Amino acid sequence: MKKEYYYYFLFRIYRFYKDRYKESESQALFSATAVSTSVISINLFSLYGVISYSELFPTLKNKYYGIFIMIFIGIIYCLLIKRNF
Questions:
Q1: Of 25, 33, 52, 77, which is least packed with CB atoms within 10 Å of its CB?
Q2: What span, in angstroms and rounded, lies between the C-alpha atoms of 75 and 51?
Q3: Is 21 left (phi over 0), alpha (psi -120 to 50) or beta?
Q4: Rounded Cα gap, residues 13 and 58, in angstroms
Q5: pLDDT of 75 strictly over 90
């Protein structure tokens, strides 16, 4: 996927929350980060599920690893979004 498509996706999420729900800039930025993190996490967990189903590597033993990964992705993308807007 091209980087421009992803930035357009983020922009559309941001404008949706800014226009439809009349959120302030920081609230819309947080909403865009939350939605983007959820979409990316779902994609990564789906990919992980397919790979673990085919038994290419062992599965995670603790659910907190998945939660930690989602929080880490959210922090990284929050920093990237703030830098690019």
A1: 25
A2: 25
A3: alpha
A4: 35
A5: no
